[in-house]
Structure formats: structure tokens, C-alpha cells
Task: structure prediction
Amino acid sequence: MESTSTVDLATLWPAAQRVIEKTGTVDRATNASVRREWAAIDVELTRLGIPTYDRHGPSGPGRAWWTAQNQDGRIIGIWVESYEEAVIELAVGFKSPIAWCAAALLPDWVQGVARWNPMTWAVELGRGGLSGSYPAEGWWQLGGLLLLAALAFTWAVRSIRAYQRSI
Result:
């Protein structure tokens, strides 16, 4: 997915600064702070004429991995619906202007692997807990995480017992 945006980075940084001013800085994200940030980002996207989507419902058709580099030199990324949302969210999260941002720099097969990564499942379920709306595939993700936890527990118990027998 390539950016078809007519909004440049110089315009998006002030939008991110307005979001930071509206939401402030928090030491620990809470359900309320995340909702305030999302609402402020949606206001800025609407101001720029960028369509928004319901973050509490299913993902829109444009959801993609956006990779960026902020002006501090960090390479960062996020799953969002649009270029503009990626730039604003990353700039707000890292309190630094974005130097460049591009979608899907990872090959398709790596993105496919990332979707099956248990860490991705845990993050999506955590976001669901904050927003109050879990992803549609949340049940199989939770089941997969519980299965992995059971396997890890079984492996740990067997390892401890084998060690005890060897003493």
C-alpha cells in the first residue's frame, strides 16, 4: 500500500502537537487516556479531510503496517488505516516529528508471519481490553495463547522433574 496522501509531514506534525496538547502526557495508559487520544486524533484527521473508522469495531479495508522513522532516528511502526493516522499516532506516541513513513515495507510473507505471532495476539487482546471491544478473532487468539501457556507449563514441570531425578 502506497501513500496517496496530499497531506505532507510538515502539516501532520502540528496536528500531532495539537493532539498532544489536548491529551497531555500520561505515565501509564488507561482506557480513558487511550480513548481521549483516539478522539483527538479523529478530530485532527477529520480537520484534514481524512476518513476515520470506528476503532471499537472491525478494522477497515485499508489496515496496513506503516513503518516510519522519527527525527530522533528511531525506526517505528504501527497497524493503522491510513498514512496520516500513522504519522500522527507515531508522532504523538514518541513526541517527535516523523522524517518519513511508508506502508508495508515488510515483505508479504513477513506480514503473514506477524499476523500469526502470539505476541500480536496478546497485543490485540490487550487493546481490546482497553477499548472494551475485542477483535473478531479474539476467541481463537485467546485459545492459542492458553494452549501455548499450557504447553510451556507442561514443559517446565517435566524439565524440573527430570532435573530432580538426576540429582
Q: What stands out?
A: Residues 114-166 form one domain. The chain has a mean pLDDT of 79.
